[in-house]
## 1
Amino acid sequence: MNKAQTQSDFFIPRLAVIGVGLIGGSLALALREAGAVGEIVGIGRGLENLQKALDLGIVDRITQDAAEGCRDADVVFLATPVRTLADVAAAIIPSLKPGAILTDGGSVKAQVAQEIEPLLRDDVFLVPGHPIAGTEKSGAEAAFATLYQGRRCILTPTKSTDQEALLFIQRMWATVGSEVVLMDVTKHDRVLAAISHLPHMVAYSLVNAVGSYDRYEENILEYSAGGFRDFTRIASSDPTMWRDIALTNRDALIEMMERFERFFGELKEDVRQGDDGKLFDFFQRSKQMRDEIL
Amino acid sequence: MNKAQTQSDFFIPRLAVIGVGLIGGSLALALREAGAVGEIVGIGRGLENLQKALDLGIVDRITQDAAEGCRDADVVFLATPVRTLADVAAAIIPSLKPGAILTDGGSVKAQVAQEIEPLLRDDVFLVPGHPIAGTEKSGAEAAFATLYQGRRCILTPTKSTDQEALLFIQRMWATVGSEVVLMDVTKHDRVLAAISHLPHMVAYSLVNAVGSYDRYEENILEYSAGGFRDFTRIASSDPTMWRDIALTNRDALIEMMERFERFFGELKEDVRQGDDGKLFDFFQRSKQMRDEIL
Ligand SMILES: NC(=O)c1ccc[n+]([C@@H]2O[C@H](COP(=O)([O-])OP(=O)(O)OC[C@H]3O[C@@H](n4cnc5c(N)ncnc54)[C@H](OP(=O)(O)O)[C@@H]3O)[C@@H](O)[C@H]2O)c1
Ligand SMILES: NC(=O)c1ccc[n+]([C@@H]2O[C@H](COP(=O)([O-])OP(=O)(O)OC[C@H]3O[C@@H](n4cnc5c(N)ncnc54)[C@H](OP(=O)(O)O)[C@@H]3O)[C@@H](O)[C@H]2O)c1
């Protein structure tokens, strides 16, 4: 029995991480720290990021050949932008060993499940997942072992999801300190459209609106250290990742964007009309809801 | 020479703070800590908050009678919601001693200056100001001595502002660790509409849109700890304060809200049309601007 196995009774002999960035790299670091993993293979598109991941001790070996890197893996964690997930899955599924579990950390779940499930073999299992944790940073250098501690991880099994594989991935996330929640895939995409995707669209729009005003007016962003900087932190997130999220969760996102527009428009009318009572109520209602979030 | 005066050569023998909340209370604490103030009188509307301010050692004595409390003050700091500032000023100006300096921390400056300047006496000086510092908390309990350290404080003198009084208030803010910036009053209100008032309107609308969706749908806010909670922190700010800001900076705010609506609407159309390139550019532009903010 090796040292790792004495520390945790959950163990993945061989893990492959495709996309060793913030999400993939952090899972690798956390599983290693928990003594819950044997060899970790890092797979990616560019050598530069992979080399960093190797240098930082996030993975044990690296390759740009996804099929080769996954051949002996017990678990493959897909952590590339959501619109690349199906292509990556297609490239590796034929070479996976029987019993391998494929799981992912993609921010949108319906389209991913729809695209990957038809590609599966009978002896390869898919468990779609989404850790509700992150920062605005990306790449291997952004990864850290405690990212998932005390955070939720949503798994969205479908009716074809293997129950043993599901249980195994639940234990994986519990091992890195997350609370696992099972959720219907459509509900996941609507909830995330509301609490994550919409806020990102709002933040990106806010920075563009204020920042470009600046260009031909006074140096507005010069005064924006502090509050504005903190509020708009999420607008520093990776453009590719967010383009992919916006495009794969389009319907739910548009619905939430339109809902936001109605509320914002109503508030603007209350400001324009100088409506004391309505303005107070609007702010008060919002404060109450916000204060209830633990 | 007392101990206080040896610590700092800036000194206010008697300071009156009207509205001993986050902004007023923090200035009192900071000046005291710098040894830059003798007696501090706390003035307010309700006894409960005043009593807390006294218990917390923020002020030396308290009164609900503003005129009485300010009678001997060298400096009066107005820190009540912006739409109350003129009434409060009107109530105290007749009883101020000759040479007294009236200054404020209100978040909107044009209307305040317009309303208070006509009320002034020849021997009482007004210096309009706005510390760019704050939290979403309010009341005396929210005050802390380091709030202004390393932050900017904007003063917006008009052509009738006394130069000596201006210099004195500049030194006051420098004493509590702020970098003082002088700015044209109209520019102040436009800059703040962009970097502070608009973001608050956005955050309040976002929480209302998402939180009320929750009511008849799935328990969305339950999943909103973390990112959403952090992003919407400013929507926990005081409704009275923000109603007053929205109403007194109406024109600049509406202009910025409409500007934001255009950008947000453009983004929504790009999402609807699934326009890869435009979406990437929108996010990329925003990330670049955001990353430039120090
Ligand atoms: N960031 C968050 O807050 C967060 C939270 C939850 C879930 N997620 C999801 O997690 C996934 C990864 O996000 P992240 O934040 O970790 O991004 P990241 O830090 O940019 O990492 C993604 C990695 O994937 C690699 N990659 C990109 N395209 C690839 C391809 N076609 N084939 C192989 N490798 C590729 C990139 O390396 P190269 O540049 O070398 O290709 C990069 O290192 C996304 O699906 C995202 O939606 C993100
Ligand atoms: N919070 C920020 O981030 C921030 C930043 C910069 C500037 N400001 C400005 O600073 C001022 C104060 O804001 P704050 O955050 O310190 O608010 P706060 O914590 O709520 O304090 C305001 C205080 O004023 C008192 N008050 C309210 N109406 C009054 C009246 N008519 N007469 C006398 N006292 C009255 C309140 O006490 P009672 O309830 O007992 O009346 C309260 O303690 C506002 O003008 C605001 O725009 C705020």
## 2
Amino acid sequence: MRTALVIGTGLIGTSAALALASRGVRVHLADHDPEQARTAAALGAGTDTEPAGTVDLAVVAVPPAHVAATLAGAMRRGAARGYIDVASVKGGPRRDLEALGLDAAALASYIGTHPMSGREKSGPLAATADLFEGRPWVLTPGRDTDTEVLNLALELIAFCRAVPVVMDADAHDRAVALVSHMPHLVSNLVAARLEHAEESAVRLCGQGIRDVTRIAASEPAMWIDILSANPGPVADLLSDVAADLDETVRALRALQSADEDKRLGGAGGIQEVLRRGNAGQTRVPGKHGAAPTSYESVIVLIDDQPGQLARIFADAGRAGVNIEDVRIEHATGQQAGLVQLMVVPQSVPVLTAALRERGWAIRQ
Amino acid sequence: MRTALVIGTGLIGTSAALALASRGVRVHLADHDPEQARTAAALGAGTDTEPAGTVDLAVVAVPPAHVAATLAGAMRRGAARGYIDVASVKGGPRRDLEALGLDAAALASYIGTHPMSGREKSGPLAATADLFEGRPWVLTPGRDTDTEVLNLALELIAFCRAVPVVMDADAHDRAVALVSHMPHLVSNLVAARLEHAEESAVRLCGQGIRDVTRIAASEPAMWIDILSANPGPVADLLSDVAADLDETVRALRALQSADEDKRLGGAGGIQEVLRRGNAGQTRVPGKHGAAPTSYESVIVLIDDQPGQLARIFADAGRAGVNIEDVRIEHATGQQAGLVQLMVVPQSVPVLTAALRERGWAIRQ
């Protein structure tokens, strides 16, 4: 690939442009707001001039609702040999394109894609060439997609150091509904219950609810766009969750019954919810996309001085132990906390001994 | 306090006993399984012999269903001057005690308490004197509770370096339903949807669903006990969540409508869910139980070598920057990842410059 056109110079478009430009591709930048394209150009993502002729790849990085019209416009003026979009939903854009009456050759030159990357900030100033590094980048080619276009898309993904994953467009939309859109709404529904809760209750919050509600802090505007583009699969999944929830409420009410058989039935119902939750949780991929390795934790007490974490990590490094994950549990009302270091089981005694020797208080 | 009796030498009982023993209190240990009490004694938590006379404080640390009968037994034989239990639910034990026909003097000598501490392991071998450090420990005295007993309980909490919080028993049960039991079940319901999901979908999981489902990995047996002791408040909250969920499904279905007014109504409904989620999430206490400070993140690229984190933390410490929280985002299919360092906003330029100078790749 020697030339590219990036239409939509927000976070994703500008990040892809930066990656392409850093590999020597001549990138043209366009945005409905010329100021945004100028900003992206100033960051080194390319030029905001129009390409002289047909570029190799056009990357359409506009909000989901505008993808099909933007693609169709670019196709009609023959802007590129291949076209991709990067919207978070894939069934709709393809159907919209078909509805716009594009011919088979135009449709063959298009692949819907979705880089599974993001960050809390948006706009070109938040862009970075390494945004996609190591993250899945889904490709949804059709049966008639040109191989040449598939290879252009794969080249872009390689330049971005992302991991290509090929999926059917509708399967992709169901998958992101499952692993992202549904959990996002559920997290918000749990957090919503705290809005008017009493302060005395809220101060009992621990790490569990903190984790469950973390993504409820995300920017609502972006999420309305995402959810509006994928309402069907998300509604289907939420309905399934709602049915399970009703079942769970029934089981809890049965636990309050005077009838022992009903109570036993209720306990069985709750047990089944927890069993299924356990089973599902083990499927969440751990590090490196592999099946979850089971790590064990070493818990260290710290106070809140700068450098405490630094010293723990330095001491762990000196012992040759690789820390796989870290969790800091903050104490309530005190200048102290616990650091949970996740390591492979065989490292536990090594790390414990090494940290003890250096004077750390290790929780048994 | 000079003498104590701990009945039930699991994780919580043995941890409290270790804290008491370390402050010079003579602790007697009892368990329905004498082997457990012997183990706790061998760990230095006290003696498994019976006390010669009345002790100062009896700590009943048995499963919720056995609390009232165990307390009543100890009270009838005049085992202690004051009695507490440490079960995770507080309304039931008090009502059960009243139903057992204990007199006013006996009831005045009892306080239901709940240390908000726990860990994934159970049993005396998992116990540690610092289990409660910095965590809230709820006290639910009644109007007629002896002040002397309240002071004994406060002394125990001080020895455990926990933070005492006084609440009404039923308010406590509603609060833990809100901040712990309801989120626990919801996390399991989200995770349950992954049990039979296709592998291609599951591999798209990111940090969001990983956080939402983390607590679904907890031990089901313990959670059945907890939920069985608090079914009413949990069912009430889950019903509220279910009503919101139905509303959300309706809003998503409206987004699929051909009617533009309906679609606008649907978007408004989703917007409201996200707004409420945002508002509730900001109430989750951050570090030190304070109102959440807003931290900013500095993102560093690392590869998977031992010592990488150590060097980052050492470099941050050298720059005098206190890392408030850490999140490690693992890359899919690659030996690389991102480390997100949370710091107070004014530390961002200092930390960024310091890490850059030491050769780290910082995401802009």
## 3
Amino acid sequence: MQLFVTPASPWVRRVVISIIELGLQDKVTMIQTRWPHNWATQTIAFDPDFARATPVGRIPALSVKGGIRLADSMTICEYLNAEHGKYRLLPREGAKRWALLSRISIAHGILEAQISRRAELLRTVNRSADFIEKMKDRGLRCFAALDEEVEAFGDDPELAQITIAAACGFADFRYAQDDWRAAAPRLARWYETFSQRPSMLSTQPAETPQ
Amino acid sequence: MQLFVTPASPWVRRVVISIIELGLQDKVTMIQTRWPHNWATQTIAFDPDFARATPVGRIPALSVKGGIRLADSMTICEYLNAEHGKYRLLPREGAKRWALLSRISIAHGILEAQISRRAELLRTVNRSADFIEKMKDRGLRCFAALDEEVEAFGDDPELAQITIAAACGFADFRYAQDDWRAAAPRLARWYETFSQRPSMLSTQPAETPQ
């Protein structure tokens, strides 16, 4: 399997953490991509392999021999969890599946707000301070909602925790001034421990290669 | 179950089409929401019921008695399909699941581009023509990729077809000048038939109430 990645993306990070937690490193070849800063407002030129892997033109993208192409992180995580992970990160069905997907859908709200805000900050013209504020509000609202769920987290890592941890890590990487810990103090205590896992330590965000 | 909706959203439409195709209309109460045009760049005031249903602050949101809250259309469709639909729109597992999720992830690329572009067009200041063009490019690239998949579509409606049809319908509603049919002529022929289903005719897009 080929996975197209960058070191800055929290969407990529949740996939890579999942790969490590499932022990699938040997099955996945990581292909670094480069993104000029004008990705935020321009259609940039895509490497032919990447263009074949995903018409969306975003990372992560997974390409599997035999023709499966998956163009978003949730679908990639579901595929790895089901086909190679014995459903250890997300149950195939039942109440626990919906509890986890409910948390994941809130964490997606954070990740989308984080990346939309990043794209706005990369605009050299027509940057909207109001839009940035709206994305900040959404993120903090979602962190506060997840703070009420911490006691229900399982002992073993699962896809909701992994996704939330990627959001916490990206908040620290790009938006430390927001202080998500003030909005979510119980989540902050949980993250203190979770962030020390080898899968977290080996995937810390770094700048996207241009 | 309570579903928070607006008549303009293609994300909402795919959920409502799924509800109709699964025959679940009696189980779901639709709650119309109102969105002032400054939703694009401002945190707007949320109705308390809606705020309780989703911290993300976006539609659709599903609230189920007993505490399940689902904050995005894919998760809602998965829940309805699994818990009330006997997996008729998306298989629980196996090769067909990944084939459909692969198409769905491309269709999501279109829907996200359509809504990001709409939000940009609603900006009264700091509107970026380049961003609008980037979103247009992404949408047409994804329509062209889906055009190559039409022959593999099943005879019965499934979640990939429903999601793609919502994208086609929104393109006609907001961006008719793009001419997605030129980029995807086989998809256009498929849509001519699919768009005549009762579930499609009864969910045609209309302006969001302000």
## 4
Amino acid sequence: MAENGVLHPERVLTLDTMNPNVKRVEYAVRGPIVQRAVQIEKELKEGVKKPFTEVLRANIGDCHAMGQRPITFLRQVLALCTYPELLEDNKFPEDAKSRARRFLAACGGGSIGSYSMSQGIELVRQDVARYIERRDGIPSNPDNIYLSSGASDAITTMLKLLISGEGATRTGVMISKPQYPLYSAALADLGAVQINYYLDESKNWSMDASELRRSLAEAKKHCTPRAICVINPGNPTGQVQSRQCIEDVIRFAAEENLFLMADEVYQDNIYAEGCEFNSFKKVLFEMGPKYSNKVELASFHSTSKCYMGECGFRGGYMELINLDPDVKVQLTKLVSVRLCPPVTGQALLDLVVNPPQPDEPSYPTYKKERAAVLAALADKAKMTEEIFNKVPGMSCNTVQGAMYAFPRIELPQKAIEAAKEKGQAPDMFYCMTLLEEKGICLVPGSGFGQREGTFHFRMTILPPTETLKVVLEKVEEFHRKFTEQYS
Amino acid sequence: MAENGVLHPERVLTLDTMNPNVKRVEYAVRGPIVQRAVQIEKELKEGVKKPFTEVLRANIGDCHAMGQRPITFLRQVLALCTYPELLEDNKFPEDAKSRARRFLAACGGGSIGSYSMSQGIELVRQDVARYIERRDGIPSNPDNIYLSSGASDAITTMLKLLISGEGATRTGVMISKPQYPLYSAALADLGAVQINYYLDESKNWSMDASELRRSLAEAKKHCTPRAICVINPGNPTGQVQSRQCIEDVIRFAAEENLFLMADEVYQDNIYAEGCEFNSFKKVLFEMGPKYSNKVELASFHSTSKCYMGECGFRGGYMELINLDPDVKVQLTKLVSVRLCPPVTGQALLDLVVNPPQPDEPSYPTYKKERAAVLAALADKAKMTEEIFNKVPGMSCNTVQGAMYAFPRIELPQKAIEAAKEKGQAPDMFYCMTLLEEKGICLVPGSGFGQREGTFHFRMTILPPTETLKVVLEKVEEFHRKFTEQYS
């Protein structure tokens, strides 16, 4: 093989010799369309003329990149932890200082630069447990909390523990379609069997017990299903599952002996009237000991979403219910190999689960900032749905929660054929054309999975309101033109 | 199975059903001895009487936990990045402010809370490339740099790419004995074949080409060796490989078609006279195009060691030489699933590879602080070796670099038998007894691997000089008493 005139006759690591599971991994949220967006940005910088002057990235839930401002209190305490000399500075409020002192006292040598326990700092896990208790009204044990480097880290770790067997005994894991592609990617990497169950688009992407049973029955023919993953509020679909749906899933998991994994990173992102967040843990315990003594549950949370949107800090946790104590020992051993989650992320998480209280000086600002972020998201969720539903050939379920709209788009037969000629999925072709013509970066529905013959895209609702409005109008304009062109 | 009176008749995830590879993982640095140390600390807090008042943890290279102070400049810039309102504060030096502004300008939305590119922020990768060029005098391409969450993350990722095949075609990876147990743990997790080559204790833990050939020849009988890992400066053994040794390894890798992984996280930790750090990359390129056009090399660095010791931030990078471009695409895809390394760690890394320059206001303090840390470590390395070598039945190679002494200990036959009765490795028994009697937490040599019939322990040289002296004296006292007791 010759590259740049250099011969590599005997390379060790090639496409042919590399880990075949890694080759099977796909991750659309940062896939080809995003790589093309990066290229276009470079071209724009180099002066290449385009029908637009900047690329708008609505492909990923990256809050601060879209202009959301950090919550003052969180950043103040983090700065104090990072450079404790600031504890002498009277510009910082006392409650921020006392939080910083409290956190640093729990760090080795009083420094945020020390390793923590691999499971996470005990103080933070205690604060997480109290947060969960306040949220659910159900006791929580800090020993069952594992801090992580974002939710992705914890989800991958739990999936890894679950995978075993070969052939018909190989572990199968049920994931929704559409899904957040971390799940399919992790399962491919682990060589596990992916079992798809479909969300019901006609019922605002709710889960359906009969569809779960259909999916499971089919999977049992060729693998050993051992877990079910649920994302609520939904990514990419933005729904909030009803309490009834959650009960159905828990009953299903109990009957079918499935380990339940609940991805609840958008738990504060609830917008639609009549919707509320019910944690799987809360519902599980309220269903009584028949379920709460039986169902094994891992639930995941993150510092990257909700009102704070601190993606870069890579903070998160999981709570484990009914985990076999021997397996817990194995889990603790496994996470110790990576030493510890980022301590800055642990500090941030501590503040998220233990924010300023009404009698503390930072409370008014904290409350105002938090409410402003969530209110703006609720407005944008509504606006997005309304505009998309006015476009002929586009229909969008209510964005009840999370940070995404996942509208269904009708594509003309000629567009489908044009895509086929390019070797692209029709919605990838659609999104690529949109990117080239309007500079808007969305993720095609095929990257998340969707019912055969249907097409969608995922768009974040994160851009500032005025920008979002322009984006929505551009998408509308593009959709009309695209439909016309290929009709 | 009944726990706390609750029946779990049909648990999904048990020792029997879990991932068998994970069960095989071992990680001594945070293993049973550290868990016992944590217990003892709790007992002390509860008022249980012990022959000591605190546990001294010399088991892990956790610099700040052992009292090392953070470098002021690093923390100032990180605080500015975290809470940019401080950019208006005249207490911060201008060079710290300009670094913070420069870094924030490279973050999405100007916030350290945004995701970065999965490969790492381009600006940081450029700075890393320039650092490598200054270090080696060899060009470095930012496209070949991948930022990571500590070195462990990058090492695990590269190993994952390399593993394929089944039975005799299953990938084997050569690692040193003694080794840092991340390697054995990652290989167990990946189900790869671990191939041991022994370092030569009689030549200050140097590598030996004939031992490499012996080890490889044996391994070829049952697996397909495809990579060799080298830790230099050495962990747990504290040696600095000579240029000759490095050339031998490169020649060996070239001849035998092995992917070369160089763990160089202690590159600034060089203490012994006549020793210098030679990066594998530098030596590879200085050996000429026959090697530099052929050998595939991944080298790893971290923000956790050297003079800064910022373990909690989880910063690091790897540089890839001669990686197949198609594999690089796969690598980029793989790391994108985890979104990005912690951005605070990336910021820290940027400062480490691009520290204050002589004409900048922070330079004198930075230089003084850095020199003080490294000088103290050099003194402690010498003191440790000297004291250990005075103890009858103990011999310690020169601690040329890194942060550890790995003395060999002679254990009486009766002690070996007593250990056997307890089902413990003899050096585990020794270290456990030391922990119970003196409150000193070390890691037994068996956790790193050692020649059959030899016994060692690893001790960090990180405690403050006065504390370290006390620790060394206590170990000496213990060793005499232990030897006497079992003779």
